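Per reviewer request, we include the raw input and output of the structure prediction for the construct analysed in the revised manuscript.
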Amino acid sequence: MAMAVVVGTVVWGAVYLLKLSVHWLLEHVLQTAAQTPFQWFIFVPLVAGSLMVAALAAWRTSYVYYRDKENHLHVLNDVEGDGLERTIGLYYTSEPVLDRALLGTQGVRARWELPTFSLAFRKFATTLVTLGSGGSGGLEGSVTLIGESLAVGLFKPRPRIRSHNLWVLRFWRWWRMLDPDELQTAQLSGVAAAVSTLLGAPLALATMSTITSGGSAGMLVPSMYLGSMSGVIVAQIFGYTDFMLVIPSITASLVSLINVPLTAIMLTVELFGASYLLPALVVLLVTLLLSHPTSVYRTQRDQDESREILPSYGVRRINVPPTWEGKTLRDLALRDRYDVNVIGYVENRAQGAQVTPYVSALRPLRTSDRLIVLGKNDAIGALLVDLNTIDTGRISAQLPAPTKGDRADVAG
């Protein structure tokens, strides 16, 4: 509880200051532009702001990885964009995955090696300059990254400033975080505090932060605006009262664009009252049937049988085909034929699936096994093509040969 209070207080102060600063700077920029006799002067702050953002993005740059729908790995500059995809990527840095295990950085250490307070400061500055100079965008995506970075920075070990005082050391042992689950709780607390401070709907936005893996914030306000405008248009076309369709339309927009149904319902009730729960729920169910599981966000929890651990290099789990039954890796010579390495296998046992990170070259393979293959994407693709060819040929061989009558029908 004490940790949550500290995180909430620090994040609230930063987000509230950013909100006030953006409004103040934008107001002064617009006033200055209005008092200038030259109409083209409005472009001066935009150009100056873009140059300053580019400089800030290049200063002390770090990179965050995200995976697209094909599970390919891409690199993101940490302060570019709206901030949510970076937040999602940082949220998963402490989880045990193969690529970070190969690099020797796992658990909370993987997040400690990335910027925290400096990242929050740079994102604060780039957001202030972008919006304050008249650029388009919203605050909600940016504050998620600021909240996450500040929350993590509060618990990051800093040996250079650690005191040798006994009481300080005892406090630090109580305060520090070594468990990835605790770190992710702090990250979600920072995100929830940031967006709740900005929008004033703490219950719905706290729920939103717990489902960040599905994408939940960077397009929040634009999605609400799009939904409300769509509701107004439909209401005017069919002669309904605008407010009757605006609120259900906001719910539909949140579900269809960023796939957060629980947040959509809670946000509707919290902002507009429980009387809109039933129409919002009906719209939610219809939208879920039509759009689920689409989302505008690319960063998702991996659920595929493949994973790219570095650009152009990946890992894939493949089923052992019947033609490999009883054969060994030495017999198949996959490394010589395809330039791939089998680094483990998944074996089905009575207790469930068991991953073994080693395969003996003399172990006979079974069709119930799944091999874990590492190599270049092109090499793995060539192996999969050949496996599909083998399966297709096996199925064709099992089909009955056409009879004499069938040949006559084909000829006719």
